[in-house]
Amino acid sequence: MGKITIDPVTRIEGHLKIEAIVENGEVKNAESSGTLFRGLELILRGRDPRDASQLTQRICGVCPQVHGTASVLCLDSAFGISDKITHNGRIIRNLLLGSNYIQSHVLHFYHLAALDYVDVTKVAHYEGNNPALKSIKKFISRGALGPFAPRYEGDYRLSDDADQEATAHYVQALDIRRKAHEMLTLFGGKMPHNCATVAGGVTEHPTVDKMASFLWRLNEIREFIDGVYIPDVIAVAEAYSDYFGIGAGCGNLLAYGVFDLDGNDPDYLTRKRLLGSGTVSTDLKLGQVDAFKIAEYVKHSRYEDSTTGRYPANGETSPQPEKDGAYSWLKAPRYDGRVYEVGPLARMAVNYVAGDSAVKNLVDPVLSHFDAGPSALFSVLGRHAARALECKYVADSMADWVLQLKPGEPVYTEYEIPDEAAGMGLVCGPRGALGHWIRIQEGKIANYQCVVPTTWNASPRDDQGQPGPIEQALIGTKIRDEANPFEIVRIVRSFDPCLACAVHVITPKGNELARFRIS
Amino acid sequence: MAKSKTEEYPVLWLQGGGCTGCFVSLLNSVSPSPRNIFVDEIIPGKHLNVRFHPTIMAGAGDLAVAELERTHDQAAGAYLLVVEGSVPVAAGGAYAMIGERDREEVSMHSWVKYLSRDALAVIAVGTCSAFGGIPSGEPNPTESVSVQQVLSTEGINTPLINVPGCPPHPDWFVGTVASLLLQGLPKEGDLDEYLRPRAFYGQLIHENCPRRAYFDEGKFAEKLSDPYCLYELGCKGPVTHADCPIRLWNNGVNWCVGSGAPCIGCVEPTFPDVVAPIYEKITDDALPNIGAE
Predict the structure, then answer these.
(1) What is the mean pLDDT of chain B?
(2) Residue B70: how many CB atoms within 10 A of its CB?
(3) How many angstroms away from the CA of A372 is the closest CA of chain B?
(4) pLDDT of residue A501
(5) Of A84, A315, B23, B50, most Cβ neighbours within 10 A?
(6) Which of residues 427-466 of A touch B (CB under 8 A)?
(7) Range of the domain at A82
């Protein structure tokens, strides 16, 4: 029996440590721990509620926009204007978030995940004229391979040509993700951390020149998604097809929905969205989401047991660093007491099962290409495929939205900050279901709580001993070579973890933590 | 042969109490592109050899951490240390841990002390590492400090350059590195009192703002999304030193005030506490006498 410790897990956002106990070549137990804490919820207390949309974006530099979005939805509801956002305000918010989706999904596949499947060193033998590959070939010939080496060695299965082509796409994707940010910036001001997303709508006005510029930047990106990104995911899936059977996880999926198509319903879970809310499990039955079934458990987290099982708005963060049996700073969010995975797979599966024809038309051809049923989606490759197809769906939809903007009409709705109020913002970010909860007292933030995607996915065991989604995805996995545990990093990265988001919640108690060590 | 002519500058990029936004911003660099920065010779004959970077490096775990040790031992005095994120010092540094040494987790604080001592120079990229930033916001739950505070506490004299911003503009980082490679370490007067390159942080936002004429005429926006000067809505441009209005962001597409939102002062040591509330007017006594000699 051996223990594989991967600390840090690189090519994710943030600080993650994975420990896996391997017996006879199979993972018997797995624990995931975050290793960075900042305490943003505490920093928010006592501040002007409006500042939350700027400060919470700083939870994550890869996906600031979804925190900005959840935050303004939360503030809108606290200010009583969630159904009063203007047409332009709603659409520009969708365009900002959609641009961030594209940036994040492209970055994840090419710059975070691909090096687990693509052997960049094959470019050493490149003989063609692609300037990026010639440049990488020269780089390799200098002998200094950082950051592409050292790495796990062995299981790279693509042909030389495919490796070289994928490497060229790695470089091309750098441009594409940059352009997605530039597209966002047309209406958002700057990125990362845009300033145009505010309670009440947005600050930037649509003009025809911006709309046209947005559209044609988007169209270039859509060509990349159709012609490069999706084909590359298919090519990787063909070469590594056993990963349709690896990393299934907990088998329960949860989505809050994202991209408001109608702003008149004040309830975010029932309002019409491009990707609707719901739950689905391996039985492929659709369930409705009831926010009050969300609770956070702490038996195996470093918090006092008395705070377990609470609805997030009533959440409390009372640390107990040396608590017996606790191994993570992440709480364990559960829905109706059960373990749920969130992310692109959850959104696509929920809307597939709900019968959304656009989603079915994207997913069915891929399933039939691999002669697989929907159950194959519950896997490492299912997550990558869902992410790529969702990227296309969102990008294609944005091309319609941008033309629905009405220059000259308002983007912003005025409001009064109430002395006492509560609000909730539920939406999905690229990495999954995100909830922000606020309580306002005397016009200031009295409590602010975020339950973020990676807290769901990387959560530890709950009070009933149920392991979190990533832990479940690891347990039972066969490891071919313990010195090069590709399976572990491929499974973990398929969830696109964002630890900066997941472990933003912490209250320290002086020097009690001096003796603390995560392991 | 080109091989023998290329000077390799090993780069170690640490991430502490941050959000990765500074690095994502650097990926938005246009000319040079990320490929030019990390693969090509960023300056002819000089190549940045990124030996450790949590967001992009192929290796993980012990393989990755070994690169920190190897570079420290083999390239003492010759590597660049880039620090993104604050350095939490509470609880013995337990709030930010990076990898293990002899099965013991090692704190960001330890790595910064260990690696900065023997670096050619340290670049603190982003407001968190330059000044503490958001994690050090009241009540500073993790006792986050800046790189400068760590160096000063430890008596480490390695040259330090602060490139703040939440995030910094990619040109500010690239320009700082290019300056190091072309002209050597900063000379007297190159940096301001906060160790920021004057080339990028030498002027106030307010001095170059396209809405400045409205300020002078007394035309102020009354609500967000209005045209006119955003001073009454909390713009911190009059107390913020950066060239955003001239440089513009994201390939010149836009910038904060350009999109109708007030400057939030993200490059200043006063971010995020003194510049808050974001949407409230700064007090008049904080306003410098713009244009006066």
Answers:
(1) 93
(2) 14
(3) 31
(4) 58
(5) B23
(6) none
(7) 2-139+160-195+206-515
